[in-house]
Amino acid sequence: MATASVSGSREKELWRRLDEVNDPELDEAITEMGFVERAEVMGDGSAEVDFRLPTYWCSPNFAFLMLDGVRKALDQLSWAPSYRVKLHDHMFAEEVNRGMEAGKTFGDIFAVLAEDQDLGALRETFRMKAFKRRQEAVLRGLRLHGLTDLEILGMDLPAYDVARFEPGEAIKQKPRYRAALLERFPDRRADDPVFVTWEGQPIPPGALGAHLAELRGVRINMEFNGALCRGLKQTRYKELDVVDGEPTLVDFILDRVPARTAPTA
Amino acid sequence: MYRTPEGKDIFVVDGHTHFWDGSPENQKNIHGKQFIECFYAYHTGLSPKDQLWEKSKFEKYSADDLYRDLFIDGPDDVAIVQSTYLKDFYKNGFNTIERNAEVAKRYPERFIVNGAFDPRDGEKALEYIHFLKETYDVKGVKMYTAEWNGASKGWKLTDPDAYKCFELCDKLGIRNIHVHKGPTIIPLSKDAFDVHDVDHAATDFQNLNWIVEHCGLPRLDDFCWIATQETNVYGGLAVALPFIHARPRYFGEVIAELLFWLGPEKILFGSDYAIWTPRWLVDKFWAYQIPQDIAAERGVQLTDEIKEKILGLNAARLYNIDVEAKKKALASTPFSIAAE
């Protein structure tokens, strides 16, 4: 049926757009974190997105940044539908939902509480962290592949694009670092070194170790949040793993173990 | 006392424990419900599966549960029990000093009861600090800078009212200031768990020890920098340590950073009971080795001697616990005999 395939492809497009929205604090896709509880294209073509964070207490400014990202992603949908985005079970859900619906900014919604909140500056901080985290993963990947520090730091974009990695985090981060680099330095020349500091300074080969130590510090913080959010999220949604198909203590605690049916002998 | 697999006895001070009541009967509003649920999510998110509690027990456990989990089944010799009032969320408070002092009285020698105050109460906070000292002879306090108070959704250690309180603590000899600096929650414009206020407060109050709980994670780099500059800043391992089970390599990176920046004398063990229980934490910590590549990059080792400091000797120093005398006293209490 034509309508079914249209709505199916629209739904795919909707998810594809949502995949592009990152949790700014973690630099990971909101869909990968499981924050999008439901995304659906309705019969009249409008889109509905239900959004839920790991805890009731998640920082409202981060929540707002993500919802704003969702709003922008939905604005890009090819059939330009009307849409509704709803934040669930958050301490400021009501304020945020009402404000989002009215197209307000974060400052407007939280005029009293937000005081001098500068979301622009916050976004910039997150961009910097994402740049560093992605760069670290790629640098470590290249070292693991056996390249010398001199070779790594001498790399330009064409060389970067054909560089090989061992399987793992580096492969995932390779295109993401490329994107962050081009966003940060739009006027860079193709033969400029690919690995520079966030400020645009070259990294002397003898200083790569110290540079990596600094980048690691950034990642440790982001991973802490990421791991915690995932753990909390799982609990909130009760998506607990089943070990070897057997119910675990958690299943009993959460009353998820079906009553055994009497054996039919 | 923790007995290692090699048969050595290790003195354990659990620097961060709670005796709370988060039960539905005590919850004042939705925030109280969500607060204990968030703790429960930490518990289920990072505990080994065989260590999980039922929700109802987690919400409210008995004094006997506490004693057994820490000292009989658990390896603790002494536990520092922190007070967190949260009276905007709970009718009788979450874990008030009255509740903590009662359990400490019931099991002598075992608990160090810390107080808490809210500088935003102004004059009343000062009166309350006097009361804490006179009534409970507190040696430390727990500061929760993200606590709500009326319209305020948080405060800073550097607020003028806070400074008045710390001046009084200094004068009365309340020397250990535990500061909760943990995962980001609530903050709007100001991040109530930002660690930079510790830097100023620690500089201005050199006589006080500043124990940053949760090592400021997820702001570990900021915390390490500050703790390196200030000789009187310490890191509490609560919340960081449970990662030893779920993400051991990640824990290795965290502890390597702490050892590199702070050194082995300024890191304190804490279970954050009842979010986690000390038995499995100490077992795993004693067995733990930092992965070689991480240890080599930072040039640090987690030796048995360092583990012993982290597990108890460092906190014993801050709280003036005479370890040998304490061991003797514990050996003669009826409860430890019952525990055999």
TrEMBL record, chain B:
Pfam families, A to Z: Amidohydro_2 (PF04909)
Transmembrane segments: none
Natural source organism: Mesorhizobium sangaii
Gene3D superfamilies recorded: Metal-dependent hydrolases
Signal sequence interval, chain numbering: none
Residue span, Amidohydrolase-related domain: 13-321
Phylogenetic placement of the source organism: Bacteria, Pseudomonadati, Pseudomonadota, Alphaproteobacteria, Hyphomicrobiales
Gene Ontology MF term list: hydrolase activity
Domain of life: Bacteria
Protein name: Amidohydrolase-related domain-containing protein
